[in-house]
Amino acid sequence: MKGTLVDTPESPDTREPGDTLLAIPDLGDAEELSCDVLVIGGGTAGTMAALTAAEHGADVLPLEKAHVRHSGALAMGMDGVNNAVIPGRAEPDDYVAEITRANDGIVDQSTVRQTATRGFAMVQRLESYGVKFEKDEHGEYAVRQVHRSGSYVLPMPEGKDVKKVLYRQLRRREMRERIRIENRVMPVRVLTSPEDGRAIGAAGFNTRTGRFVTVRAGSVILATGACGRLGLPASGYLYGTYENPTNAGDGYAMAYHAGAELTGIECFQINPLIKDYNGPACAVAVLTETAPVGTGPALAAALADTDGAVRAAAAASLRELVETLTPEPALHDPLTHALAQPDPVVRAAALDVLRALRLGDAGLFARSLGDPDISVRIEAVRALVSVDAAEALVRAADDTSREVRVTVAKALATVGADAGRRNVAVTTGAAATDADAGHRNLVVPSGSAAGPAPDATAADLVLAALDRLTEDTDALVRGAAFASLAGTGAPAPLAERAVRAQADPAWQVRAGAATALSVADAEVAVPALAKALADPNADVRKAAVLALVRHTQPTEFGEQGEHSEGGTGRRGTDGDVSPTSTATTVAAAREALATAATDSDADVRAYASRAL
């Protein structure tokens, strides 16, 4: 092999003539490869990318600096997926909101939403490969709650074998015909076209021989992982990081040199040990671990500490221990006083704990609807749900924040259903009760000219609020409002609006409208839902399928299976049964579901097939 000799500090007299410790290969001897799709990185992400490209007919070349069989951050396995948004257990918007809160708003929500909307299909795909996920006694995915709100963690009983399972997929005969794995090749640059800057390949070298390798590709996928040592905690751990130290930021460097703009790499995970905390905050952490008698009041008192780190630790600890705390006056007073603290983290935590321990009332919670911080107002909305304060929630529907209005729209479904069942009377403009002092003079506009009557019930007010939220300027608010109608009822005007919303440019609105049609009159709903099965967005089609299922199950609302003459009965929120379906509409709904059973999306097919 031709090459350049590299000398060493050793004396030449100790070596035979021509001996060298290293020979740098000549560029002219570079190995040249070509493919349709080049995947840089052979970890879990790279393996899945290679399989996907090959399944679509491409000739794929993964480059891995180690060996694909046991490389990547998940090579040693994992105990669960922490972003599993399972239909029926969580919604993508809920996950996006939780991750946004957990990261203090410093996230790219579009990326998080991709994870949320596509994660369930990925779980099913991994399961089809042989990866096992925990199921409950009913055969459903056993998601757990680890985040502050929502259940997104799906345990993997045999997670140590994830990479082995994926490697077997790569080595299947039909995959071997499409995928050529190049192990021990370290890419260092993405090659770009001088004409338009498009990625056309990569350059690297063999980590064993040093020989240069060039790849000509139709497209390039970077799947190199993050940069595990970009932010180093004072942990004393091997390599100074909890993350995989072989995630060295190769992809960041290659993308940068290829002309890509980088963003967000200043945000990294740091897991500090005790020495990273100050003294009082450390004491708070110890309280959390041991929880002796008096822990709750001590933590609540720490919310007023002058040090921000102490306040933050106390707020987090209270939320962590809330299920073990005893409701008592010693907790109520400092938590109530904390609502006036200038720190929004403290105010939000105080509301959360007051709600969970049922130490607050509607008046107390409603006052926080005017808080300048969005996260505090969101906690206030959740707290008002816990005390069924429908009227205060209706007032919050006019909040200036999209995130708050989305939360309100979802909350109205809960209090609206309860109000409908109990027929709770609410008098607008009446003298305030002790609980709602200062928050009773409401004007609730409606989509109709008349608006709510002076003696409107809580259910009337909720419907009026959802009426105007379905015409909100923000698509996420409209989508959430339409979806909430499924729990509160969809009278004819709103059902017709849901039908029109099937033409909305935002898929969230179309999906929410399809959900609303699940409780609308079948003559109106079924044709619109059948049409929605051709929607380009899979989530809209899934919502349409689930709504159609409701129109094929006339007895799901009552044990007796009440029927009208020649039709079926449906039980509303007030407990009455009214005829909404006919034999014709039931047949049409089942026919539409039969069509959905051949859908291109696995979730849509599964829901439709189960219904049939």
List its traits.
globular, FAD/NAD(P)-binding domain, 6-stranded mixed β-sheet, 23 helices, 43% helix, two-stranded antiparallel ribbon, 612 residues, alpha/beta, disordered N terminus
Could you explain the architecture of this structure?
A hairpin with a 5-residue loop joins β9 and β10. The strands form four sheets. This protein has a six-stranded mixed sheet. A two-stranded antiparallel ribbon has the order 1-2. The protein is globular and about 85 Å long. The longest helix has 21 residues, at 109-129. The protein is α/β, with parallel strands linked by helices and 612 residues long. 43% of the residues lie in helices and 11% in strands.
Helix count equals 23
Q: What's the CATH topology name of the domain at 27-71 and 165-257?
A: FAD/NAD(P)-binding domain
Number of strands: 12
Percent of residues in beta strands: 5-15%
Unreliable runs: 1-15, 270-279, 419-452, 555-579
Examine the secondary-structure arrangement and name the CATH architecture of the domain at 27-71 and 165-257: 3-Layer(bba) Sandwich
Apparent shape: globular
- Determine the fraction of residues in helical runs and give it as a percent range: 40-55%
Largest sheet: number of strands, sense, barrel closure? 6 strands, mixed
Radius of gyration, in Å, reads: 30 Å
Distance between the termini: 67 Å
Summarize model confidence as the mean pLDDT.
79
Question: Largest sheet, order of strands side by side?
Answer: 7-4-3-10-9-8
CATH superfamily of the domain at 27-71 and 165-257: FAD/NAD(P)-binding domain
In the CATH scheme, the class of the domain at 27-71 and 165-257 would be: Alpha Beta
Based on secondary structure, the structural category is alpha/beta
